Amino acid sequence: MASESEYYIVNMDTDRERASRLRRRLYGVHRQFEKQLRVIMRREPVIKGIVYILRRRCGKAGCRCVEGHLHETWALTVPEKGHKRMRSVPKGQRVRWSELAGRYRRFRRARAMLVKLFREILKEVDALERQRTIPPPEP
Ligand SMILES: [Zn+2]
Questions:
Q1: Which of 42, 104, 114, 117 could form a disulfide with 46 if both were Cys (CB 3.0 to 4.6 A apart)?
Q2: What is the Å distance from ligand 1's center to 68 Cα?
Q3: pLDDT per residue over 7-61, tens digit each?
């Protein structure tokens, strides 16, 4: 049977291991946080919305679209207070607009990750606080 002092040493060890595990986790989450922050801090412009191809019939009798060769136009949909606004993509701008919109998506994804990671950081900080807190020392 372990004496009281031996038990205390074992307990101190697991506490220390727990503390360093907490710190390692906190550093890990912090690194991920920094990675997402770098996406947010880039300087290139972004455009809000999604670039996609619209296929439709024009309605003119005898047009090739009647037989299924639909007209294709590139469009950008912009979410706006509960509805979507549509803009057609100017000729020759498809690649550029797609890039701009892609950056916006990555920006938003990074933002969502930051929210999640920040919650995790706070959780780890609170765990570390509990781990570090001791009763007030005896006078
Ligand atoms: Zn047509």
A1: 104
A2: 9
A3: 556 666 687 888 889 999 999 999 999 999 999 999 999 999 999 999 999 989 9
Q: Are 77 and 85 in contact (CB under 8 A)?
A: yes
- The Cα–Cα gap between 50 and 84 comes to 10
* Number of domains observed in the structure of the chain: 1
- Assess contact for 94 and 74: CB atoms under 8 A: yes
Q: How far is the CA of 89 from the centre of ligand 1 (A)?
A: 19
- In this structure, the strands spanning 71-80 and 50-56 are antiparallel
Polymer length in residues for the chain:
139
The whole-angstrom separation of Cα 88 and Cα 98 is 12
Residue 137 lies in a domain: no
Task: Using CB atoms within 10 Å of the CB of residue 76, give its burial: 0 to 12 exposed, 13 to 18 middle, 19+ buried.
Answer: buried
Distance 56 CA to ligand 1 centre (A): 8
Question: What average pLDDT does the segment 87-109 reach?
Answer: 96
| CA 63 to centroid of ligand 1, rounded, Å | 5
